[in-house]
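Holo model, guanosine-5'-monophosphate. Inputs:
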Amino acid sequence: MDCIFCKIIRGEIPSSKLYEDENCLAILDINPVAFGHTLVISRRHYPEFLDAPPEAMTEFMKTGYKVIGAVVKGTGAEGYNLLVNNNRCAGQVIPHLHLHVIPRKNGDGLRFEWNPRPYPEGEMEKIAKAIKASLP
Ligand code: 5GP
Ligand code: ZN
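Output:
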């Protein structure tokens, strides 16, 4: 398959490997937004978060938990962001499930472009109702 992360997992593309197990591979992002920016990549190719069954996500996050701790400790981070982009409109460039671990320091200047705005009248209740109706 022509997927960069599958190629990295198969060892066909070099990477700065930090950790691997039967579920995941953790590497340094080649284009970091902060030094130590790490990607925890699912060993299996799931295009996005909801394509992975819940059991696979549980295993994925077990690895993630370990790696997050190591990134924070190893970089001396004072905080960290965890991020999974899903699909192009949400900024996903590589359609293979991965978790970004971004170490943060006070005053590091890194900004995520949030655009918060209030709901128009009645919209909050409508959206809450639609989401609740979609729960399994
Ligand atoms: P996405 O936008 O899909 O959530 O994030 C993809 C990430 O993969 C980006 O942060 C990008 O810098 C990183 N990336 C893309 N190609 C490579 C590569 O060949 N090696 C490594 N280590 N990271 C990559
Ligand atoms: Zn893949």
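The pocket of zinc ion (ligand 2) is lined by residues 3, 5-6, 45, 96 (CB under 6 Å). Strands lie at 17-20, 24-28, 38-42, 79-83, 98-104.
Archived with the compound record.
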